[in-house]
Amino acid sequence: LCLPPIRAALRCPQPRVLTVVRQPSGDFGFSLRRSALSDGLAGDDRRRTLMFAEPSTLGSGGGGTGLLPGDRLLEVNGASVDERTREEVVEMVRSSGDRVSLKVQPLPELCEIVARVAGGGPPGATQGRHRTLSRTGSRRHRTLGVSGRLPVLKSSERIEDGDPRSRRSAKTDEEIAEERQWLQSEKVWVLFDGGYAGASLVKGDQVTPREGRVRVRLDATGELLDVDQEDVDKVRSFIVFPKHTRCSQRHTNDVSVPVSPAPRLMLLLRTVTSSGISAKVPMTALCCSLQMQRVMRLLRDCPADDLPPHVFAVAQAAHAALVSTRRDQTVLFLGRSGAGKTGAAKQVLQYLAITVLFSSPSPEKLTAASALLESFGNSRTWANANASRFSQLFSLEFDIAGQLVSASVQALMLERWRVSGLRKGEPNFHIFHYLLAGVGDSLRRVLAFLDVCFVQRVTVPFVWLQPEERSKCALMWELVQGSLLTLGVRESEAKGLWSVLGAICHLGEAGTLRVWATSTGTSGRLQFQRGDSAQRAALLLGTSVEDLHRAVFAHEALLSAGGNSRLASRTGDSDPQEPLQDFVAALYMEVFGAVVSLVNRALGSAGRSVATVQVLDCPGFQSGKLATLEDLCHNYVQERLQLLFHQHTFLAQQERYQQEKVAVEEAEEVASPQGLVSLLDRIPPQGAALRASSCDLQQTDQSCGLLQLLDDEALYPGNTDDAFLDRLLRMGPANDGREQRLIHPGPREGQFVLHHQLGSLPVTYGVQGWLRAAREGPAFRQAQPLLQESHKEQLAQLFGCSRGPLASAGSTLSLDAGASSSLRRTPSIRRAQSVAAAKRRSLPLQVKYTTDGMLEVLRRTRLHFVHCLVPSMQPLEQGTGGAADDAHFDVPLVRSQLKGAQVLDAVRLRKQGFPENLQYTEFRRRYSLLASADCTPERGDERAAVEALLHHLDMEPSSYRLGLSQIFLRAGTLSQLEAQRDERLSEEVVRLQARARGFLARRRHQQRKVQAMALCCIQRNVRRFLEIRSWPWWRLFVKIAPVLNVHRTEEQLKSTLEEVGQLRAKLEKAEKERSELRQNHDLLEAK
């Protein structure tokens, strides 16, 4: 048996020759840009400098030029530009006269977008197109005819761009016969240990294999084999066509998916269910930020069915759902470490910030916030050069109009022990390397770095960086400085951060040692090994050496005051570096919390929000080298997210069917991650017996999980890692008995193996140092008060605004006043921390309860899952950087990820069931306009009205099911109804516009008629005046008219005087009567 070759990538559209006319402004309406990136057309990873010709605007047809973002310039007026500089190409364009001929070709990563916008037509066909993409389904329906069926090819064929079959409206008899012959051959995949092989089923009377086995003929050699029926999978019909989903494929399985599309074009295996599921493989060549911004604006306001298979489609779907339902949305990224989850999350944030008009905060602030958090929270691992070491939950607040008004970020479960040097062989966080490589002379003098050669007795050393990596770190330091400036961080606040980081470096150089008492031979007190380094750290922290010593070694004073000699003797045998490691980790936790607070202050605003789009990015599954406790915590979080995906996709849908009493085809049972999750976080019942001493090992073995067991063991200083491992391996199985297959001893002593992702990812863990890392020493709680009481005003102000008493617990959570409105939807995370972190101070329980609170927040939102896949896994030491190209596409690795992520199971469930559902009232409200006026259902029984509407629409009965209160539709049916509704609405809008235009035209016509009549009257009077102006009698009249007016004035004056005289007489008479009445009144009063 042998593996079939991976199919070649779909070739880009043929180069387009465009003739661009010089515009009135003097230019040609496009810009030239040179960029160094991997040439996708060559199929290798060599960095080449390419020339791009992009439109200056994104209007119709790219400003009339026909250019699209990402078009690579090949020739100018027939001359190649490969070996020319940008100045030479600009001169060639300028000297072209009024017209210039350009030959362009899109990059492989953008050929899908170009094919949709340009339509794959002849050169120049894209000129004059509108920027909004039309519906692919409608275009295909109009192009291929009424049936809308695509031509089906053999697995060895594909439709090229110029193939007539791509534009034919019907199939020929030969094509139908060829398709029928291919279907009758029953092509299958035969699975074996090394992968899979293509074959055909052999049937007939003479073929009599044993029960449970089938006979196949291998395509490669023609050999006949009898194989198990379970090892045979159907081959789907292979069609290279820009499809949006894989749910319409004839046979979808984990064998057909890796072999059909080329890895370079596997941007997304969109399976878009009702919960918005996607699978993503990172691209080998990413476009620059400017080009991506152009692509984002190009895809804005496109219909959902027309969006190319990209993570931008998930972002737009989340925003559209938020606007339509006013419900919070969450985009979750799942997958292994190095799969590109952080990059995809940043693309979602950028897309939402760029495509939403009048957004606040700006995209530049979001980019600066992401860069700053990556510098402080990311590190280099064995398989990823920029691995996230914390979980971040970005919240984008939108108002009622769908505009971005505010943003915030929560940082959870930072890998705190990395800064203290407990992760042997792995470097520190990026910010330390940036600081030591790029700090200037003035800041270096302030931080006392001038004459110090850091050996780092506690923290991770700096010697692993190569000279070229030091230069990159210096450039990244400038990026950090620019990010702080963009976010509006004051210089005093930045200096406060650098002072604490410098103090951490000096504390790592100081080290600790234990002074032994020579007279008694017992252990003495702890002190700093190098007093000068401790003095520098105290100056940077704004405190004295005595206070610093008291804060770091506070546990000795506590033990002496309590008189616990037995515990003190046990502590004396421990590592003397532990107090300093705890204190250094706590200092960095405070710095990271302050950075998150500064970011939230810059991103927050006073705008009123209605709903939120949350983007969750957690560290992926950790595998490869010997995993540690922090890796177990990250894998536990991913398992919980995978369980959430399983419940939301499989269980919730089946429960909805049962509640609505909908009969569906019984689906195959899908494995659940609940067994491993229960093994990790099972909590003993309240009535269970508690452990009273280190000897009670068998009391809670049957009822607690790994995290609870580790917490119990960490409470007693005398316990060892080997005892914990022995108790872990002796834990009893759960009721279903699955845990026996999920955990077993490792290949060496002190190791065990857990099978993550439904058993497809075995991870070997080493328990050395787990009990030490699981508990917090007294020095861990001394960092926050020391910084708040610092003599330096900048430090006291920066860390004085406490983020709560739990700010320096195992998770970092920003709770400053400026971000209270943005974080009002996440009280459960803070409540979870108050339950676990404050009482037990244990890392395992902090992770568990923080994850519980986070999932409680996520369940209240609408979820959009994005599964990221790793094409191949290669260590960084081999110089590959963890990236993969076509030559290193690991098919078994991708298959195992598809199986563990349950992507194809979700596809099958969507294909067999009815994933789209609407309430009867909502369905009738939206689609009643598709019915004619005489067929409008009567109001009353909504189900009867919907049945009448469906009967009028002549829908296939197998495409829907009617429940008690909802209608369930097959995948794709709702999009077809939306397309018909959009078409009907367009007709109604056109009719309304015609009526409105007719009314306005008639009113303008009446106004024009009145104006024309008035104009005719004026013209007639002017003509009469021109005729009589030289007439003698007219002249005489003009001279006499003023005299006649004077006579009229005298008459008017005379009449006015008469009226005044009459009024005066009436007034005198009234006065006389008034005086008589007064006299009579006085006489009567006198009597």
Automatic annotation (TrEMBL):
Residues 1046-1087 form a coiled coil. One of its GO terms (molecular function) is actin binding. PROSITE patterns: IQ (PS50096), MYOSIN_MOTOR (PS51456), PDZ (PS50106). It comes from the Eukaryota. ATP binds at residues 335-342. SMART domains: MYSc (SM00242), PDZ (SM00228). Residues 155-175 have a biased composition (Basic and acidic residues). Residues 17-108 form the PDZ domain. Keywords: Actin-binding, ATP-binding, Coiled coil, Motor protein, Myosin, Nucleotide-binding. GO terms for cellular component: myosin complex. Gene3D superfamilies: 1.10.10.820, 1.20.58.530, 2.30.42.10, 6.20.240.20, Kinesin motor domain, Myosin VI head, motor domain, U50 subdomain, Myosin, subunit A. Residues 118-175 are annotated as: Disordered. Residues 128-143 have a biased composition (Basic residues). It holds the Pfam family Myosin_head. PANTHER family: DILUTE CLASS UNCONVENTIONAL MYOSIN, ISOFORM C, MYOSIN. Belongs to the TRAFAC class myosin-kinesin ATPase superfamily. Myosin family. This is Myosin xvIII, putative. It comes from Ixodes scapularis.
